[in-house]
Amino acid sequence: MNANAPNLSYWEYKSWFSNVDFTIVGSGITGLNCALRLRALHPSAKILIVERGNLPQGASTKNAGFACFGSLSELIADLNTHSEAKMLELV
Ligand SMILES: Cc1cc2nc3c(=O)[nH]c(=O)nc-3n(C[C@H](O)[C@H](O)[C@H](O)COP(=O)(O)OP(=O)(O)OC[C@H]3O[C@@H](n4cnc5c(N)ncnc54)[C@H](O)[C@@H]3O)c2cc1C
């Protein structure tokens, strides 16, 4: 723990910050989805998610809520690396 770490009790440190198998930085949609995936792959792993704010501070709690799969120009660009069938499957 560095000098800026919160003043943790022995029990808090032992419970939350020791023997951690995976640490994820950021509790946005990417970090939480990563944690869920890790939990599925490693059911007994200790997974720590650290977030800089009291609440998530990034785009995940501020976005418009649309399920985006790409704009028309992105889909056309995908054709450079995907077959048409793969691109349509993504859509
Ligand atoms: C206004 C707006 C509208 C949007 N609308 C849509 C939409 O309609 N549909 C869509 O699909 N996408 C939309 N997006 C994009 C989408 O929200 C983002 O792509 C997505 O939320 C990114 O998720 P993320 O987990 O990668 O990042 P974030 O949600 O930004 O999460 C990163 C987290 O990491 C934390 N963090 C950063 N640095 C540290 C650190 N050093 N220590 C600890 N924690 C840290 C941050 O506080 C934050 O909580 C929108 C984005 C914005 C800004």
TrEMBL record:
Pfam families: DAO. Residues 21-83 form the FAD dependent oxidoreductase domain. It comes from the Bacteria. Transmembrane segments: none annotated. This is FAD dependent oxidoreductase. It comes from Leeuwenhoekiella aestuarii.
